[in-house]
Amino acid sequence: MNAPLPLPALDEIREHENEMVALRRQIHANPELAYEEHATADLVAERLQRWGYEVHRGLGGTGVVGTLRVGNSPRHVGLRADMDALPIAETSNKPWASKVFGKMHACGHDGHTAMLLAAARHLAATRRFDGHLHLVFQPAEEGQAGAKRMLDDGFLKLFPCEAMFGMHNMPGLPEGRFSIVPGPALASSDTCLITVRGKGGHGAMPHVAVDPVVAASSIVMALQTVVSRNVPPLEMGVVTVGAFLAGDAPNVIPGEAKLRLTVRAYKPAVRDLLQQRITEIANTQAAVYGASAEVEYQRRYPMLYNHPQQSAFCQRVVTDWLGAEGLLANAEPVTGSEDFAFFLEQVPGCYVFIGNGVGSEGGCMVHNPGYDFNDRVLPTGASYWVRIAETYLDRQAT
Ligand SMILES: [Zn+2]
Ligand SMILES: [Zn+2]
């Protein structure tokens, strides 16, 4: 069988492919969880310094920002990668599999870091742009809002980007092709804990108790009407009760029941509506049964909104380079979430997916113990970053 053809990449990036693959595998073998990315941050900072970047450390704890200024243009652009791994035990058995039991790069952030570093090296060697280039290596993308912590620590005061760009691999999409969705591209992700309080008692004497299990069951059923009856039919919303916790004996009516929810939306107005209706339903349904409900609603990641002008820019960069086939024609929003959304709330920009491959070649979904970043995609992703930076900070631009 013939080996598959290499994916498109800039020649100078291809020259360093072996080194890029080795670096990706080194990061993969040594995964670090959110806010613990010390060795990874050391590695990133050391490389950036070696190539002539001004390096700023400590934003968001373990975040690293490398800045390179070329020419006199006042323009600033930020490119972002993430560095954290997940608390999953790897099952791949590959030679570069995680050396740390219970931790692994199951979301490909090892690949993201390696691609941005390869671009960093190239951009510093060739200096074919005019302006300030900020390369952002953020901690804690996985549920711990590292991007928000970098912003809270003054990221935009130190590095006032006029646009920011992000990229994530996506298994199931053809390798090295790009999915770009202008507008809402990923959902907001909130959690909600509903504690239903009744009055515990003997299972044989329900008439002198207030049963929180029945009240909570009624809440679960009523919540099914939020998306079907309250959210406008053309809008997207998800309300999932992922956990129902109550009681531990057949003959005891417990004093309380707990529900844990995940809540998703693509628009702020829908997000507000979901929070409002969940709260109203929990309170009124509990009251019907003589119980009470406490609703603790936590807003976690906002929806990720790709700004139209910057989305069109990214689409143009891909098609000018790879032709129309570089872009996936039927790109669709996904209901996952991503904390790059915090950057895009403050700064216009665009977050794209690069295909990690299908089937046995990169098709295993992220967050699965058998997942691995597809090394064939590295040169294409690194070349994308180079094209984005050089086009955005084009010397010829007025
Ligand atoms: Zn992930
Ligand atoms: Zn990820």
Keywords for this entry:
single chain; 398 residues; alpha+beta; Aminopeptidase; Alpha-Beta Plaits; 2 domains; 7-stranded mixed beta sheet; 4-stranded antiparallel beta sheet; 15 strands; 24% strand; elongated; binds zinc ion
How would you describe this structure to a colleague?
This protein has two domains: 11-186 and 303-392, 3-Layer(aba) Sandwich (Aminopeptidase); 188-301, 2-Layer Sandwich (Alpha-Beta Plaits). It has eleven helices and 15 strands. The protein has helices at 11-15, 17-29, 38-50, 109-126, 146-152, 155-158, 212-230, 268-288, 308-322, 340-346, 378-392, and strands at residues 54-57, 64-70, 76-82, 131-138, 163-171, 178-179, 183-186, 188-197, 201-202, 237-246, 252-253, 256-265, 292-301, 304-306, 349-357. Strands 1-2-4-3-5-15-6 form a seven-stranded mixed β-sheet, with helices on both faces. A four-stranded antiparallel β-sheet has the order 10-12-8-13, with helices on one face. It starts with 10 loop residues before the first helix and ends in a 6-residue tail after the last helix. The model has no long low-confidence stretch (mean pLDDT 96). One zinc ion (ZN) binds at residues 107, 142, 366-367.
